[in-house]
């Protein structure tokens, strides 16, 4: 069959370890045989980030702004052990944090659900979408290791010469200090993105922070959300029959566990990072989660919402078979291709992305699964396969759908 044509390239961001291996297989088996793929390629593997002084990450983010749609492989955010393992020049910051700061977007993550895998939380009958604020907080923080006794201060000097200062702590011994920030403009964008997504998906929106303790930082999030809702979205929500609900983050967590699902859960940056892993695991697997970063000016970055599967990569290097679940990475590709097709008015490309997702779900519903899912399946006797066999099974079903 003739390959599907593209007119605008995707921004392709390659990654690390086992997900990098799967990235190559997915392209070769599930994309290139069917699509005349056009990408602008950036190698965000840790060795290349180190070799370029992490400039490649910034270049990839700016390309995302230029072309509008990107697809990203999972990448390593190095700690001290990784600095030694990869002989890095320094402990580079999270590439996701850099990209999200450039795009100033919101990350929406939702579980990939199939009939044979029931959520661990038995009353969850509908998907829960995590809306993660993808800017600032701990991901762009400044940190000090305090060597000994002394006074730590927080100081702001305005461009007009005004000055505010507060004592953080009078250290009587060694310790640690962290300063983090956010911007009103980014919080406004976060709020509008969440309200728009809830309207488009016709789902209630929940948001939680800790404004009783953080009376300036978290309270600003609460106030801006309420301001935007009252001024711009209340009437739209009421007309759509959906609601916006705010409460303390601990109360929200308790309500989520008791709920049936079926809503958008807005979270600050760190909360969203943690809670998306909890939700995805409760629905089945970390690899069964879609993730898309949406910027206020209409740019999209699709990625796998999990790490680089280091343990499997070490086995792979030894020549041992691995059963790594590629679903989140496949759905990153399908999501990006669908969005590229939508923006470029290429219905064939949109249909291909839909067919790829349908073939992937059919493979799972047929009982062909990677190791992480086999123990979760109910009502069927699953067949455990390695990663390559799983992708081949998807290809067989994809070819049938495209015939």
Description:
With 403 residues, the protein is of the alpha/beta class. It has 14 helices and 18 strands. A 10-stranded mixed β-sheet has the order 4-2-5-16-15-6-7-14-12-13, with helices on both faces. The chain has a two-stranded parallel sheet with strand order 1-3. Strand 9 and strand 10 (163-171) form a beta hairpin. The relative contact order is 0.16. The mean pLDDT is 95.
List keywords for this structure.
403 residues; two-stranded parallel sheet; ten-stranded mixed β-sheet; 14 helices; 45% helix; 18 strands; alpha/beta; single chain; globular
Write a brief structural summary.
The chain is α/β, with parallel strands linked by helices and 403 residues long. The chain has 14 helices and 18 strands.
Question: Number of helical runs?
Answer: 14
- Helicity, in percent? 40-55%
Order of neighbouring strands in the sheet with most strands: 4-2-5-16-15-6-7-14-12-13
Overall pLDDT level: 95
Tell me the distance between the termini. 8 Å
Number of strands: 18
Strand content: 15-25%
Q: Supply the helix-strand structural class.
A: alpha/beta
Overall morphology: globular
Largest sheet: 10 strands, mixed
Low-confidence stretches: none
Q: Which value, in Å, is the CA radius of gyration?
A: 22 Å
Oligomer: single chain
């Amino acid at each position: 069959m003739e390959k599907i044509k593209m007119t605008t390239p995707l921004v392709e961001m390659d990654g690390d370890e086992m997900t990098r291996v799967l990235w190559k297989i997915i392209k070769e088996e599930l994309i290139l045989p069917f699509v005349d793929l056009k990408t602008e390629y950036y190698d965000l593997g840790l060795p290349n980030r180190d070799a370029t002084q992490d400039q490649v990450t910034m270049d990839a983010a700016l390309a995302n702004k230029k072309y509008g749609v990107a697809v990203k492989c999972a990448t390593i955010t190095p700690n001290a052990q990784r600095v030694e393992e990869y002989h890095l020049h320094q402990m580079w910051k999270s590439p996701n944090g850099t990209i999200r700061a450039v795009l100033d977007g919101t990350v929406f993550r939702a579980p990939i659900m199939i009939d044979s895998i029931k959520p661990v939380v038995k009353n969850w009958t509908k998907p829960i979408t995590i809306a993660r604020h993808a800017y600032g907080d701990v991901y762009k923080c400044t940190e000090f290791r305090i060597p000994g006794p002394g006074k730590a201060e927080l100081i702001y000097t305005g461009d007009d010469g005004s000055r505010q200062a507060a004592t953080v702590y009078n250290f009587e011994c060694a310790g640690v200090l962290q300063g983090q920030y956010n911007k009103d403009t980014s919080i406004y964008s976060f709020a509008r993105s969440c309200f728009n997504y809830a309207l488009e998906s016709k789902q209630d929106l929940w948001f939680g922070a800790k404004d009783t303790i953080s009376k300036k930082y978290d309270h600003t999030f609460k106030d801006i959300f309420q301001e935007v809702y009252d001024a711009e979205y209340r009437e739209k929500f009421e007309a759509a029959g959906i609601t916006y609900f705010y409460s303390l983050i601990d109360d929200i967590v308790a309500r989520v566990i008791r709920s049936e699902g079926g809503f958008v859960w807005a979270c600050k940056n760190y909360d969203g990072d943690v809670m998306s892993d909890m939700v995805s695991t409760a629905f089945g697997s970390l690899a069964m989660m879609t993730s898309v970063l949406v910027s206020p000016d209409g740019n999209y970055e699709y990625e796998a919402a999990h790490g680089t599967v280091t343990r499997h990569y070490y086995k792979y290097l030894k020549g041992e078979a691995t059963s790594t679940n590629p679903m989140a990475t496949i759905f990153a590709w399908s999501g990006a291709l669908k969005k590229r097709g939508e923006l470029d008015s290429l219905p064939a490309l949109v249909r291909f992305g839909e067919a790829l997702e349908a073939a992937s779900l059919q493979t799972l519903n047929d009982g062909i699964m990677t190791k992480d899912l086999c123990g979760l399946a109910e009502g069927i006797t699953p067949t455990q396969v390695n990663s390559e066999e799983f992708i081949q099974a998807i290809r067989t079903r994809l070819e049938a759908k495209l015939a």
